[in-house]
Amino acid sequence: MIALDINVKNENNNYLGKIFSGIDVLQYEWEIIHEDFLYYDNGERKEKFFEIDILSGEEFLKCISRDKYYMIFLDIKAYPINSKRVEINTFKDFLESNCEFVFLCTDSGFIEFYCKDRDILDKVYNNCICNGFEKVQYKSIADVSGRNLV
β-pairing, 101-106 with 110-115? Predict the structure, then answer.
């Protein structure tokens, strides 16, 4: 298994915090390709969830630890610290790159999570199940080999 398809409710929540709970996000640099969020900070409506396009693990953790937010679209790639980043458009690009995780969210409720480390994939699966997400399904390389990752 190399991926998960996840469905979540279309609501304010802290899905990223729940999904990545127990994962050492500090080991990675997080590239924010695209984001579309709504959240409130000190009562003020904000739309820019991540302040910059490349985040350290500490910065990423701070952002995903927010209490509640509304995730609409999101494209994140995670790389080991100081590794070369490349444009990833296809599943093949992902496999051939240094990228360790791809996280895609579309239309607020549909998430695709790709991961090269089976232990981390299993941890994310268990996090989703324990948090009562609507649908969580493992996907094999054969299942996702033709997918675009943008």
Answer: antiparallel
